[in-house]
Design brief:
alpha/beta, 2-enoyl-CoA Hydratase, Chain A, domain 1, 8-stranded mixed sheet, 7-stranded mixed sheet, 20 helices, 39% helix, 17% strand, elongated
């Protein structure tokens, strides 16, 4: 065979591999409102940056006449490219080939790209659109899934792992995304569940659709499985590109610094008046964040789940930070099981990848009641405490209004190795709120008074003046500085500059035993 003929043969094979299951299958994919694997990669990566690996791999199955059905690539597209010029690795299930089912070969392709990503220290992004295990291969496909799960675990905290769920993801397939750092889902075409509607109907007699059981909105608001939800795939992949800007390549590096044009010493007078004088009146903590972060930019994570706490990424003087903030607008910003889980995992991500954590605190305590107690709020709250205590990155807290009881301890208090604790002058720091404390401490005086209600109000004010203010805590060193709200941005930036070379260590051990 001539050299020209060999080159022509190569080009023909490349063209054949790039159409996956063929034009008819691609048309069907588009009719479902979904993009193909390569179209998705093109949206995700910088233009013309994708370098494909294992384009010519095929499966080895011979049962059920599978030896007669071989397609180049075998339903999986893998390789590497760049996002904003930074190296990332990617794998994408191709639904046009055997419904994107996972074979032994598909698993080997995924494992190879994950191992490459770990070796060179770059994020890995998985695009999930799969019918599940390839049943013709039986246990080989199950073993393949488990090989992927193992790498998800081994590389957790080593390189960022991101999952995009843009089609079906069911059965054992859901565990790989669940093990990654962030899950992105698209509405209407994507769903995740362990057992589908038919099995649910048979076993529990519940009649649900795939969307009701495991759609994007369900996992965004009810289960908390997904972190970001979008109406279309284009927006989803743009969302991943945005997130990449805030995180480092690996656990040995820091997140990229962006040139900052927002003045370091910018003062916002509105911060002095934003929080209501009435401590029981709600306000939107996001308004506080918008006035402090660079260019009012904040990428909120799990925005629809446990909204009584907010987590996400922002920047201060161009440097990426992780934000944890109570949200008084929902349930008064109280901590409960779901919000504790949400915050704890985010804190651990930031700590694993060298991202400083800034906590904005306005917390009345933990949610009381049998529902929370029976649900294990003690255990879940302990996860948050564990995460903050374990974290060695720079940790700063700003107490905006309330800091009561055990919730005050949990929200990066000084005793959890909080580096700098600021408090606004109207903040209240105490074992409990002034009313509850007064009812206990002064119960005899209140009962003996001619007007118990008037006496109670007086004692509440007395307690608030004497104990429920930031100066008692500041006098004991639990608060480093009481600051005027309008200069919060400047104070945070200066503190982060001071902490830039912070070194903190945990005792040598294999790993801790977080209360799961």
């Amino acid at each position: 065979m001539s050299r020209e003929r060999k080159i022509l043969e190569l080009k023909e094979k490349i063209d054949k591999a790039r159409v996956g299951g063929g034009d008819v299958a691609i048309d069907k994919q588009h009719q479902r409102g979904k993009l193909t694997a390569r179209e998705r990669i093109d949206l995700l990566l910088d233009k013309s940056s994708f370098e494909e690996m294992d384009m010519f791999r095929t499966h080895d199955c011979t049962d059920f006449d599978m030896n007669k059905k071989k397609i180049l690539g075998d339903g999986m597209v893998t390789g590497y490219g760049t996002i904003h010029g930074r190296l990332v690795f990617v794998y994408a299930f191709d639904f046009t080939v055997f419904g994107g089912s996972l074979s032994k070969t598909v698993a080997e392709k995924v494992v190879k790209v994950m191992e490459k990503a770990a070796k060179v220290g770059a994020p890995v992004i998985g695009i999930n659109d799969s019918g599940g295990a390839r049943i013709q291969e039986g246990v080989d496909s199950l073993a393949g899934y488990t090989e992927i799960f193992l790498r998800n675990v081994l590389y957790s905290g080593v390189i960022p792992q991101i999952s995009a769920v843009v089609g079906p993801c069911a059965g054992g397939a859901v565990y790989s995304p669940a093990l990654t750092d962030f899950i992105f889902m698209v509405r209407k075409t994507a769903y995740m569940f362990l057992t589908g509607p038919k099995i649910v109907k048979t076993v529990t007699h519940e009649d649900v659709t795939a969307e009701e059981l495991g759609g994007a909105d369900v996992h965004a608001s009810k289960s908390g499985i997904t972190h970001f939800t979008y109406d279309d795939e284009q927006s989803l992949f743009e969302g991943i590109r945005s997130l990449i800007n805030y995180i480092p390549q690996n656990n040995m590096e820091e997140a990229p610094v962006i040139v900052n044009e927002d003045p370091v010493d910018r003062i916002d007078e509105d911060l002095n008046y934003l929080v209501p004088d009435n401590v029981n009146k709600p306000y939107d903590m996001k308004d506080v964040l918008m006035r402090i972060l660079d260019n009012s930019e904040f990428i909120e994570v799990q925005a629809l789940y446990a909204p009584n706490i907010m987590i996400g990424f922002g920047r201060l003087n161009g440097k990426s930070i992780g934000v944890v903030a109570n949200q008084p607008k929902y349930l008064a910003g109280v901590l409960d099981s779901n919000s504790s889980n949400k915050a704890a995992r985010f804190v651990r991500f930031c700590d694993a990848f060298n991202i400083p954590i800034v906590t904005f605190e306005d917390v009345p305590g933990f949610m009381p009641g049998t529902v929370q107690e029976f649900n294990g709020v003690i255990k879940h709250g302990a996860k948050m405490l564990y995460a903050y205590a374990e974290a060695t990155v720079p940790k700063i807290t700003v107490i905006i209004r309330k800091g009561y009881g055990g919730a005050f301890c949990v929200m990066n208090s000084k005793q959890l190795r909080g580096d700098i604790i600021y408090a606004w002058p109207a903040s209240e720091i105490a074992v409990m709120g002034p009313q509850g404390a007064s009812e206990i401490i002064f119960s005899k005086e209140i009962k003996a008074a001619k007007n118990p209600q008037e006496k109670l109000q007086g004692k509440i004010e007395e307690y608030r003046d004497k104990f429920a203010n930031p100066y008692v805590a500041a006098s004991k060193g639990y608060v480093d500085e009481v600051i005027e709200p309008k200069i919060t941005r400047y104070k945070l930036i200066k503190a982060l500059e001071m902490l830039a070379n912070k070194r903190d260590d945990n005792p040598p051990k294999k790993h801790g035993n977080i209360p799961l």
